[in-house]
Structure formats: structure tokens, C-alpha cells
Design brief:
Blueprint (H helix, E strand, L loop, with lengths): L1 H23 L9 E9 L5 E2 L17 E2 L3 E9 L5 E7 L2 E6 L3 E4 L1 H11 L3 E8 L6 E5 L8 E7 L3 E9 L5 E7 L2 E7 H4 L12 E2 L5 E2 L46 H10 L6 H14 L5 H24 L1
Antiparallel strand pairs: 1-4, 1-7, 2-3, 4-5, 5-6, 8-11, 9-10, 11-12, 12-13, 14-15
Length: about 325
């Protein structure tokens, strides 16, 4: 019993250690050597880079697709990698990890914003949206993404703001540059904090009478006229039913005559006796074929019983 409990405990311990190692692979427990706060853009000969759980090219890759050239990276720390090269510590789509410095180019924050604006198809627009925020003020950011840092204050719920630039960022969120007093570059999350209609419901932003972006409506094609219905031909009358001829009466059955007592006696004399020699021989053969130890099930059962008895004797002697 003690050996069994020890085996179970060992299995549970291995499971816990495996879970802990997987959790650590997301990079959240990996501290950089230096804490920093600046921006770089991806510039790789491969067209993009990966973000790793460790500052090690052999560690787990955290992203599903390459982080394409032109993407801005907020470098929050630096670390010397196992390959004796510098690695940038950053957050990408909620995952913290490391990117090789050799595939990054230094830029200012403004340059990073402009680079992403060009890379991800940003455009100049002219429409208005209404701020919608349950917390009272909608947060605003220095660029089209939370990685650019939040600006204190925000915009009050219910405020109508003018949007002059639009981009669907690398994070998949629709961002708009809001023109507000006292701020040169304020970006708002259009999907989360405004009444903006996403690009899945409109082809391109257009100006409506009240200044809001509306979708371009495709005209409905004219309905095709239904062809005239061909009149159904008249139904041919059903011919009269021919009367069924009367049934011919069935002939009476001649009653069977009962056998006489003499005929019954003759039939009894013809039947073989139940105890005759032929019937005895037949039954004897059947008994012979069914008897004996020819059935394999009986052999297997007997062997199984013997093995069980031997095992019981062995364990009883072992306990003594």
C-alpha cells in the first residue's frame, strides 16, 4: 500500500513540475537585465521576426505568425542572450517575451507611429463618432495602440469628436485620431469606446448629413416578373365502374370418415416401440458424443482454478 501511495505522489509531482515549466515559458517570469522605455521597428531580412519566451533562439516561440516588418516594438528592457547577442524585452498581444535586437531598427515614438500608419494602410478620414464609456471617461493614447502609452484624462462619455486619421492596427483593433483641444495626437479605440461601425459592416467611411460615418448601400436589383401561369387542362371524367360478378358458391366439403376400431389396432401394431433396440442405440451414441472432457471451456476453467489456488497459497505463505 505504501509503495502504491508513493507512486501516485511521484506522478502528481511530475505533473505539477511540467505545468510550472509551461507557465514559465510565456516569459512573464523572465526579468530583463536592464529596464528601458523606447521604440524600435521590425526590420528583418526574413520579412518579420518571432518573439521568444527566453532570450534564446531555441526557446518557445510565442507568436503564431511573424511580426511583420514595419511593426513598432515598445522595448521595455534588454538582456544578453544565450547566443551572446542583445535581445529586446517587450509585450506583444498580451505576451511578454524577447526579440533579437539584430532584427530591429531604432526610431522615435512619432516615427514608429508613422511607420505603422504606412505599413498597415492608415488613411486620412473625415467623420465624427460619439464617445461611449461605462467608466465616465474613455482612455486615449499617444498612438494607434496601447503600447504607445495612455494619456491622462481621457474623453468624457457622450462627447462627439472628429476623427481625422483611421487605421486598423497590428493588434486587429480599429483606431482613430481624435481632434481635441490641447492635444496634438490623441488616439481612441473606436471598437471599444465609440459608436463607430466596424469595417465589416461598411466598405469605406463616408460623410452623412450629421457628419457620422455611414456605410455605402448597394441598390437592390429590380425583381424579375413572374411568367404567366399556364391554365390546367380539364380533367377527363372517370369511366363508370363495371359491377363485380356474383361469387360462385363453394362446394360442400365431404366429411372425413373416422377409422374403425380394427384399423386403429393395425396402425398401433405398425408403430415401433419406444424401447426398441434402434432407439436405444441412437440415444447411446448421443450420450457418448456429449460425454468426456473434449470441451475446451472445461479445460480452460480447470486450469484457471488451479492457477488461482496456487496464487492464494503463495500469498498466504508470504503473509506468514
Amino acid at each position: 500500500m505504501k509503495k502504491k501511495l508513493g507512486t501516485i505522489a511521484a506522478v502528481l509531482l511530475c505533473f505539477i513540475l511540467a505545468a510550472v515549466s509551461v507557465y514559465a515559458d510565456d516569459g512573464r517570469e523572465q526579468d530583463p537585465d536592464y529596464v528601458t522605455d523606447y521604440y524600435m521597428t521590425v526590420q528583418s531580412a526574413d520579412g518579420g521576426v518571432n518573439i521568444y519566451a527566453e532570450a534564446d533562439p531555441e526557446s518557445n516561440v510565442l507568436n503564431d505568425n511573424l511580426i511583420v516588418n514595419g511593426t513598432a516594438i515598445h522595448v521595455q528592457g534588454e538582456k544578453d542572450g544565450t547566443d551572446n547577442k542583445e535581445w529586446a524585452y517587450s509585450e506583444y498581444h498580451g505576451m511578454n517575451g524577447y526579440i533579437p535586437m539584430d532584427d530591429l531598427a531604432p526610431v522615435t515614438r512619432a516615427e514608429a507611429i508613422n511607420k505603422e500608419f504606412q505599413t498597415f494602410g492608415g488613411e486620412d478620414v473625415d467623420f465624427q463618432v460619439k464617445i461611449q464609456s461605462d467608466s465616465g471617461n474613455a482612455p486615449v493614447y499617444n498612438g494607434p495602440g496601447e503600447k504607445y502609452g495612455e494619456i491622462s484624462g481621457g474623453i468624457a462619455d457622450g462627447t462627439t469628436v472628429h476623427i481625422s486619421k483611421y487605421i486598423k492596427g497590428e493588434d486587429g483593433i480599429n483606431w482613430g485620431k481624435a481632434d481635441t483641444d490641447g492635444e496634438e495626437s490623441v488616439w481612441v479605440n473606436l471598437d471599444r469606446d465609440t459608436d463607430y461601425v466596424s469595417d465589416t459592416e461598411q466598405t469605406s467611411p463616408q460623410e452623412s448629413k450629421d457628419g457620422k460615418a455611414v456605410a455605402e448601400v448597394t441598390p437592390t436589383p429590380e425583381a424579375t416578373q413572374t411568367p404567366e401561369v399556364t391554365p390546367t387542362p380539364e380533367v377527363t371524367p372517370t369511366p363508370e365502374v363495371t359491377p363485380t360478378p356474383e361469387a360462385t358458391p363453394t362446394e360442400e366439403v365431404t366429411p372425413t370418415t373416422e377409422p374403425t376400431p380394427e384399423e386403429k389396432k393395425e396402425e398401433m401394431d405398425k408403430k415401433p416401440e419406444s424401447g426398441s433396440d434402434d432407439s436405444k442405440k441412437t440415444s447411446g451414441k448421443n450420450v457418448k458424443s456429449d460425454s468426456g472432457m473434449r470441451n475446451p471451456v472445461i479445460w480452460i476453467s480447470g486450469i484457471g482454478i488451479i492457477i488461482i489456488i496456487i496464487l492464494l497459497i503463495y500469498f498466504l505463505r508470504k503473509k506468514k
